[in-house]
Structures are given as C-alpha cells and as structure tokens.
Amino acid sequence: MSFFVVIQVLLDFSLIAPLTDYNQVFVYGMIGFAISMSLYLSYNFAQTNKNLETQLMRVRELSEKTLEQERTANMFELERQIVDAENKRKTHELEEARKLQLSLLPKEIPESENLDIAFYMNTATEVGGDYYDIISGEDKRITIAVGDATGHGVKAGIMVAIVKGLIHELSNDLKSSEVLVKINNVIREMQLGNLYMALILIKINKSCIDISSAGMPPILLYKREENIIEEIIIKRMPLGATNKLNFPEQKIKINPGDILLLLSDGLPELFNQKMEMFDYKRVKEVLLNNTEKTSAEIITELKSAAERWRGGFEQADDMTFVVVKCKEYCRTCTGYKSNCCKI
Prior knowledge:
This protein is an alpha+beta fold. The chain has six helices and twelve strands. α3 crosses α4.
C-alpha cells in the first residue's frame, strides 16, 4: 500500500485533519516516514529470512556432502586395512610354505664311486611346489626324484611332503613305475581336488638307470661318444590326475662322460623382458657347451644363463636342476676321477 493511499484513508475517516498549515506538513511527513520505514524494514526482514533459509539449505547440503565424503573415506580406509591384513597373511603363508619346501630337501648328497651328482633349486617370489630328493639304498642303488606340484603356497608344500614321505617309504622295495602307481593311488584316495604332482623317478645301479615319469619335462641325456643330446620323453599325466594310471619304465645305460639332466619346467619356461621363453633349445646349448665340466659347474652355467636371459625380469616359477655325470676312469688315480682330477 502506497504512502498517498494511506493518507487518503486517514483523511476519509477524519483521523487526521486536512493539510492547511506548516505543522500539519511536518506531522504528515513523519507519518509518511514511519510508514515508509515500516515497509522497508518489513521487506528487508523478509529478504533476510529468505537469505537465511537459502544459507541454511546450503549449509545442510554441504554437511551432507561432508558426511558422505567422510563415510566414503572411512570405507576406503577400512578396505585398505583389510587388503593390508590379507597381504600380510599371504606373505606369512608364502614364507611358511617356502620354509617347508626347503626343509624337505636333502641336506647332503650320498657319495657314489662312479657318479658326480649335483642339485639346485631356486624358488620364485611366489613359492611353487618344486621338489628334489636323493635316497641311497643299502645295496648302494641311488634313487633320485624331481617333482613339481601344481599350485602355490602351503597346499603345494603339503603335496610335496606327502610325496616325499611315500618315496622314502616305498623306493627301496619297489620299482620306479610301481612307486608312481602307489603314490597316484594315495593322492586319489585323499581327494585333494585340483592338486597334482608331476614327478620323475629314476633308480641308478652303477651305470644302469631305470626311469619313470608322470607329467614332467623331457630328461636330457648327453652321450659323449656321439657328442649329441637325446630327449627321453615319457608322456604320462601327473600323479593324482586320474585313477588307474600306469607308468612305463624306460631303461638306459650311461657310459663314462655321459650326462643326465633332470629339470622342472621353470627354466625352459623362463620369460625375459620381451616375453620370450628360454625354451629347451637353449637348455641343450648350455649343456652341450659345458660337457667337460663337473655337475656343479654345469649347474652354475645353467644358473648364469637363466640370470642373463631374464635380465632382472621377475621369475614366475621355481627352477630345479639335477645333473648326473658318469665319471671317467683315471689311470693316474687308478680309479674314477674325483676332486683330485677334474671330471
């Protein structure tokens, strides 16, 4: 309502006298000022209330966003702590598996009159299930085993422990092929799921060797007289894969200077930074270039070749080598060559 309308209403109801002198002008002016101020203050108060409501809404929205951000941050922090705890658990489990794996390896190599034997295993960052063993019987026959359990960590370690116990229990009384059949039956009865064991088992009696294999890579045999490397391939499924497996037994004879190389697939399947595999061809080249060296020196050459090949690239699987070299007869020593005369 405007100032003039208000004055007209007051005049109509004779609430104020008509404007006739100076004093009345002053009175009307004060009334108009009061009414104008009242209208201004009312408008300003309404605007202030509106602004306050707007600010309150903004504060409420900001508070909700802040709370949501805090909830999200807390959720991420909790997830991070869970991941850290799980990583620590896995690291501890892998370390325990590595210790178990290493504890099952033979502490020394039995002496042999005509054989130079050396072993090596290099575990990967994530522990697998490589395994090697050597057992000397009362009749001086030597049993050598090289295996590779599927999977990683404690489960693979458990499989290795089972197989090691069975080999030590059975190897003196049974042929290699019979030992593998017995181990396969035990693993199947235990119902371990998708947990298997590839295994080479050889029995050495002087220069005669009986070989059985279940799912392992070829054995490499260097023949000195012919200066060639042969692959001994026995195609069979790993232990525990299925029931009623049979394992053929292959017999070979090694002569002085001959070399037998047993290995897991860690070296042939070792990748370099270009994602190329080392492969069996390079394994043969290393062996062929070092046939005059001892078994331990051949293993050193294989290790060096593997390091050069991967060039700092992470090793994804365990690497295991077993080198068996038939000693040559030394006329000076009137016996087989040993430390006194280099093989």
